[in-house]
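Re: that backbone. Tokens:
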């Protein structure tokens, strides 16, 4: 097993045109990270691949994969929320319209941030996360966290996210804590 603390990570950025090149990698990491939940319909590999295809079809979609000695450490991907997005529709308590108005440039939705087990606990999730956000033009980023993972939520709070409410994005999805972080203004 590789050691997470002694290997430098190199990042590669991917756009939608390169999804075929990394689809298998993203699916493999997803299968490993969500192994205990794959029997649930919402978390099945088939549903993940459908979500991935839909997400990557959005303008501005981007992914980052971290590599250490040519092994995949983890990955993250997201895209800007378009006008008319359903992202905010599942909120259990609706947010003010001013907070949910999207135009395709305001808010980046971080759909997945996954780190393989050998590299967890060494700060690699934050490195991958920040690499994805670096240079993004959006003013804020949002993500969802399962309430069953309070340590993950606390980690995001340390990274500057705040909990703005809960949502259930699909009828068979769990209820998620919705997190939001404002990004620095690009120079």
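Recovered sequence:
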């Amino acid at each position: 097993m590789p050691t997470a603390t002694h290997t430098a990570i190199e990042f590669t950025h991917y756009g939608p045109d390169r999804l075929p090149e990394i689809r298998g990698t993203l699916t493999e990491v997803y299968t490993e990270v969500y192994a205990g939940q794959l029997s649930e319909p919402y978390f099945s590999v088939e549903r993940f691949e459908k979500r991935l295809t839909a997400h990557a079809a959005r303008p501005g979609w981007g992914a980052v994969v971290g590599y250490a000695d040519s092994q995949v450490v983890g990955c993250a991907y997201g895209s800007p929320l378009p006008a008319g997005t359903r992202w905010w529709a599942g909120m259990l308590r609706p947010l003010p319209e001013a907070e949910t108005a999207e135009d395709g440039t305001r808010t980046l939705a971080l759909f997945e941030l996954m780190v393989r087990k050998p590299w967890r606990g060494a700060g690699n999730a934050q490195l991958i996360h920040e690499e994805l956000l670096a240079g993004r033009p959006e003013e804020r980023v949002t993500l969802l966290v399962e309430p069953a993972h309070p340590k993950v939520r606390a980690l995001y709070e340390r990274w500057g996210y705040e909990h703005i409410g809960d949502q259930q994005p699909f009828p068979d999805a769990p209820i998620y804590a919705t997190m939001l972080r404002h990004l620095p203004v690009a120079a």
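The mean pLDDT is 93. The first strand starts at residue 10 and ends at 14.
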